[in-house]
Amino acid sequence: MKLAYVSLVRLPTDRAHGYAMMKMCEHFAARGLDVELVVPTRRHGIKDDPFHYYGIERNFTIRKLWATDFLGRFYKSRLSFFIDQLTFLLSLLRQRFGNTMVYARDYQVALFVRSKNITLEVHTIPHRVWLFSLALSRARRIVVISGGLKKALIALGAPEHKILVAPDAVDLSEFDITPSREVWREHGVDPQKKIVLYTGHFYGWKGAETLAKAAAALEGDAEVVLMGGIDEELASFKKEYAGPHVYVIGFQPRKNIPNFLMSADVLVLPNSAKPKISSLYTSPLKLFQYMASSVPIVASDLPSIREILTDETAFWFAPDDENALARQIEYVLAHKDEAQQKAARAHEEIKKYTWDARAQAIIVSLH
To answer: In the record, which residues are listed under signal peptide (predicted)?
Structure first.
């Protein structure tokens, strides 16, 4: 079977979705599909070869369609974003895919692509619901990352039988390492102290500010590390929150993340309860990395997170409440045996959430 994975995303990107796309193409191909990844051309930003940048097996091809790249020059310009997106979609409109299955991660692709065999992967509900609903109607199959998203799509009129729930995943081989706490010295963090770690971006619904504020309420000598922001996001967050016992560290190469995670004492998933993308729809890649690390997890008590974690695999706190988070972190650090038992159960559960298993489930649903 031929599969064209089409996305608006320029590659490579430091955003997690770029890695997820490449991993899915890798595992679709490993399962026997003839895969071509179709993305826009790029003239600015990261110049690395995507296969090398993400550490992906070169078992599929990448085709780039012409598009402007104004956003690469005018960061955060809404007009640039619109023009870049439109030029790619117009280039896509000229392509004929015949019997090739089109796998789209963006609903705009499902609107423009000339194909009657479209699978649409959905990660959130956009504001333009009527266009989104039209894209859903064009798709023969819909893949969502959470049960909350499935319920939302059914409420919009999508037939339940068309929808597959396939949460995000992890590459367990990345965690087949012997971690070293000495890596923390490079960032000024004392490896002899307890390390509480968050990885990911720092914007709104990710909840990073809740952990940063919780640091002030923590008793003892725990060091709180927030890792992963870029550019203005990083500079602004560091200016506001970095201080005694709070370390704000920028984006790190993906290959280094497992060592950081596995050498921490507590991993925090502090998603906000305010937007639906966080409370109901998300399936965070970091969640699956956390589970693979065998380190205790403290997580926001949200329906989206409870689809994966349970009382047996995580410690919960009330979302957006820094004091509740601080108390739960202290509890985990004070109850090492209980914490390690939950971490071990999470590590056992993660075996169900590999990229290969996800690819296989989607392939089966397409037949």
So the answer is: none
**What pLDDT is stored for residue 71 in this prediction?**
76
Torsions phi, psi for 143 (to 5 deg): -110, 130
Which of 167-196 are b and which e, b meaning 16 or more Cβ less than 10 Å from the residue's Cβ? bbbbbbebbeeebebeebeeeebeeeebbb
Find the distance separating the first CA and the last CA of the chain, reported in whole Å.
Answer: 10
Q: How far apart are CA 15 and CA 158, in angstroms?
A: 29
pLDDT in tens, 158-195: 999 999 999 999 999 999 999 999 999 999 999 999 99
Model confidence at 77, in pLDDT bands (50, 70, 90)?
A: confident
Cβ(158)–Cβ(141) below 8 Å: no
Least confident of 76-85, 146-155, 210-219, 302-311: 76-85
The H-or-E segment that residue 290 falls in is: helix 285-292
Q: Where would I find the beta strands (DSSP E) of 150-199?
A: 163-165, 195-199
Domain 172-352 has CATH 3.40.50.2000: yes
Domain ranges of the chain: 2-169+354-366, 172-352
Say if strands 2-6 and 101-104 run parallel, antiparallel, or are unpaired: parallel
**Is the overall model pTM greater than 0.85, yes or no?**
yes
Q: Do 2-169+354-366 and 172-352 show the same overall fold?
A: yes
Distance CA 260, CA 252 (A): 10
> What is the β-pairing status of strands 118-122 and 266-269?
unpaired
Residues 6+ apart with CB under 8 A from 4: 35, 36, 37, 38, 97, 100, 101, 102, 103
Residues 6+ apart with CB under 8 A from 158: 136, 142
The predicted pLDDT at position 75 comes to: 67
CATH number of 2-169+354-366: 3.40.50.2000
List the beta bridge partners of residue 224: 196, 246
Q: Using H for helix, E for strand and C for coil, what is the string for 304-360?
A: HHHCCCCCCCCEEECCCCHHHHHHHHHHHHHCHHHHHHHHHHHHHHHHHCEHHHHHH
Query: Cβ distance 343 to 296 under 8 Å?
Result: yes
